[in-house]
Amino acid sequence: MNIPRTPSALRRRPLLLAVTALALLAPLTACGGSDTAEGDGKTLRLWHYEQEDGALSKAWDAAIAEFKRTHPDVKVVFERKTFEQIQQNAGMILNSDKAPDVMEYNKGNATTGQLAKQGLLTDLTPLVKEHGWDRKISDSASVTARYNDKGEMGGDKWYGIPNYGEFVLTYYNDDLFKKYNVDKPTDFKSFEAALAKFKAAGITPLANAGNDHPAGHWLYLLALSKANNTWVDNYQRYVGKVDFHGPEMTYAVDKYQEWLDKGYFDKKDVGLKGSDMVEQFVSQKRPIMVGGNWWFGSLTTDIKNFQWSTAAYPGSERTLGSGGNNWVIPTRAKNKELAEDFIDITMSDKIQKLIDEEGNVPLAAKPADVTNPKSRQLTEAFAQTQENDGLAFYPDWPVAGYYDTWVAATQNLMNGGKDDSVLDELAAPYEKYVATRP
Questions:
Q1: CA nearest to 168, candidates 217, 232, 108
Q2: What value, to the nearest 5°, has the Cα angle with vertex 38 and ends 32 and 43?
Q3: Residue 33: beta bridge partners?
Q4: Are 323 and 158 in contact (CB under 8 A)?
């Protein structure tokens, strides 16, 4: 799994000042002095890497405040790390006596799964049942929290708890839909009708970026529209053989090429980055953007001169997405019961609602409880996806280095490459890995 290239990493916040692994292993200190009460139930050591003032950081701040209120005799030693610090040094840290009690950690086979396989993470399965966390997290959202003995996601043991989700959905410029008298899509037929009507008015309807994840996301999304859960499991979890020239991927490249030929995509977008795609939408050059919920927060800030809305992509019950990053409890944590209490607070109605109100996607909040209209739209779209068991992960996850392959293949397609050559390009590294997989 190519973690540095997953959408979570692509949208990773501006880095704090980097420190070395040695510094990470140095004795932890809090603002109030040294930590002298390790292992006695009086100190909770907590690490996460969310950007200060971001939606999740605000939620975790509130969870810490609630923990302090309910545990008045416990000192919380919190340290904000960077994603890269934990990503690169987690194995060393968690195998030392400086492991925190609870830590945010990236999801996936190469991260949470790898540490679980190495015995560095606590098996949380009994706690999940005890607290009912599995009743708050859908099966599809929990796949990246559960691992088997090989460290592969989707197993029967829980090694992490996600509190939020991420998924790809549709963003609409409502003003442009009204201006050009285009009906808001409710299904794939009306979606294509909207594309055709905008194009007839001289407008390229779809924002896109070929030199980044969006173009590959589109290709995978089109494949998912013809796929079932068995195909997703085969592709993502190696349960069965994947035919890259089968109906799913063949449809995807054919439809993508058709939309290129009709001008629904602009071939000139082949060299653009994800931020360029967002700018196309924000500047009202493109009325429709299909992208991750990780763009939602910046859109609420950047869009000031037109009305916009979100909805689940109408062409498929399945979309790219997963549960968010995990709270994990290291095997060598000294105060595991306190870590358990903190995780339970993050799953509470109060904190879940706050995640939503701040513009992210909580796993356990109900849309009806959300007061912000735009946030409610986002939560409703995610709830619809979960109801359909529709979180189908990301196309580059199965193979290390696969992200670059997907970018190259979609650029090949946008530059006029033949369908078979694009499919062969995608198949080669995947089939090589599966053939040599332990």
A1: 217
A2: 55
A3: 30
A4: no
Residues 6+ apart with CB under 8 A from 432: none
d(CA 422, CA 146): 33
- Nearest to residue 257, comparing CAs of 403, 417, 408, 396? 417
Nearest to 244 by CA among 412, 409, 424, 398: 424
CB 365 within 8 A of CB 134: no
- Distances 288 to 92, 251, 282, 349 between C-alpha atoms, Å: 45, 22, 10, 33
Mean pLDDT across the stretch 290-299? Answer: 91
**Structure token digits, residue 431:** 């089939």
Contacts of residue 286, defined as CB under 8 A and 6 or more positions apart, other chains included, come to 173, 203, 204, 205, 206, 207, 280
Quick one: tokens of 37?
Answer: 């009460």
158 exposure class (CB count in 10 Å sphere: 0-12, 13-18, 19+): buried
Residue 38: which pLDDT band, with cuts at 50, 70 and 90?
Answer: low
| Position with higher pLDDT, 387 vs 314 | 314
Closest CA to 205 of 194, 219, 221: 194
Residues paired with residue 362 on neighbouring β-strands, in sequence order: 164
Query: What global pTM score does this model have?
Result: 0.81
The label of the residue with tokens 């916040």 reads 13
C-alpha radius of gyration, the chain, whole number: 22
Q: Specify the DSSP class assigned to residue 266.
A: -
Structure tokens at 178: 């009204």
| 282/274 Cα distance (integer angstroms) | 13
